[in-house]
Structure formats: structure tokens, C-alpha cells
Design brief:
Structural class: alpha/beta
Oligomer: single chain
Radius of gyration: 21 Å
Number of domains: 2
CATH architecture of the largest domain: 3-Layer(aba) Sandwich
CATH superfamily of the largest domain: Glutaredoxin
CATH class of the largest domain: Alpha Beta
Strand content: 15-25%
Order of helices and strands: HEEEEEHHEHEHEEEH
């Protein structure tokens, strides 16, 4: 091999780590990975009503102690709202107040909210939760497994799960508070109807 070819080969080999570093930096920018981002479409998405994938989420807010976790399947009998979000997501920040108000309004009823932080760092997620006073259970999907199992492609993205653990509604983009409450009320009516039927029997 000629000297010129050796020089070209050596230069190319030296550049490979640089390109790898640039690619890694791109995926880490603001905690947002390449190919993931804020939803550009908004509204309800038709979903096949199927059992929600179970998961366990280590909690990082409120009075949670290290190691405290929440398991979705433990919430059977309740209507569950699973919200996928990130600290760098503008719409997530904008709708945090509405989510907090709705969560407070449904205290004492068979409803639970779960905030699943994705494509982010735990430190950034914790700062977000403190800044916006998020009271409902939240944690970080560090490995991205939960988001993958739910087919999340952008944020914010919400899944409404009925008392039997079945996904009934998916909503992408920021959700108006009245629409969110209407979705919860629809599923709660089923829970309350089942409860009334059981009492009559």
C-alpha cells in the first residue's frame, strides 16, 4: 500500500471516534434522543382495546423514599391515566397545571395518575417535578422499556386505562383540561355502575 493510501486510511480511522462522539452528543442534547420529540399531531388516537402492558416505576417525587415503586397491575379497580412527558417538552410544561388541578379534583375517587418521564435525565425530571409542584406519582423510564411497550413516538402522550386494566383511549399532544376530565368521567361512570350493580345483587 502506498504512503498516500496509508495516510488516507489513518485519517479515516482517526475520524471515526469523532463522528461517534458527535452522534452521541446529538442524542444527549437536552436529554432528547434522535428520532424522538414533541408530538406534531394532536387529539385522540384510535387504539385497539387491549390489556395495558404492566410495568413497575420507581418513584422520585412527593414523599417517595429511595426504592419506592408503583406497579400498574396493583391499581386494578381504578381508572389510570399514564402520562409520558419530559422536562424539555414545552407542551408538557404548559399542561402541568391542568394535570395537577385534575389530579387534585379526583382525590377520593378511584382514579390514579402516573407520570412517566422519558428521554430525559433523572436530575432534570426531579427539577421539573419540584418546579411545577407535581403531586401525582412520577418516575423515570430510564431504559425506555415502558415507552417502547406502549408505542410512544412523541410527547406528551397519554393513555387512559380502565378499571380492568384495558387501554381505552390514547391522546397525543397537550390535552385540554375539560377533555381530560370528560375522558376520566366516562371511565369512572363504568366503575360506579359496576359498583351499583354489585350492591343490588
Amino acid at each position: 500500500m502506498s504512503r498516500r493510501n496509508w495516510i488516507i486510511l489513518g485519517t479515516a480511522a482517526a475520524l471515526i471516534p469523532l463522528f461517534a462522539l458527535l452522534a452521541w452528543a446529538a442524542t444527549q442534547q437536552r436529554g432528547q434522543p434522535a428520532g424522538a420529540g414533541i408530538n406534531q399531531q394532536f387529539g385522540e388516537i384510535r387504539v385497539e382495546q387491549s390489556p395495558a402492558a404492566d410495568f413497575t416505576l420507581e418513584l422520585i417525587n412527593g414523599n417517595a423514599q429511595r426504592g419506592d415503586a408503583l406497579r400498574l397491575s396493583d391499581l386494578r379497580g381504578k381508572v389510570v391515566l399514564v402520562d409520558f412527558w419530559a422536562s424539555w417538552c414545552g407542551p408538557c410544561r404548559q399542561e402541568s397545571g391542568a394535570l395537577n388541578r385534575a389530579y387534585a379534583a379526583y382525590q377520593g375517587r378511584p382514579v390514579e395518575f402516573i407520570g412517566v418521564n422519558v428521554w430525559d435525565t433523572q436530575n432534570a425530571a426531579e427539577l421539573f417535578l419540584v418546579e411545577f409542584g407535581v403531586a401525582y406519582p412520577a418516575g423515570v423510564d430510564a431504559g425506555g422499556e415502558i415507552a417502547l411497550n406502549y408505542g410512544v413516538s412523541g410527547i406528551p402522550e397519554k393513555f387512559f386505562i380502565d378499571a380492568n386494566g384495558v387501554i381505552r383511549l390514547k391522546y397525543v399532544g397537550p390535552m385540554p383540561e375539560d377533555v381530560l376530565r370528560a375522558a376520566l368521567e366516562t371511565l369512572l361512570a363504568e366503575v360506579e355502575a359496576d359498583g351499583a350493580g354489585s350492591q343490588q345483587r
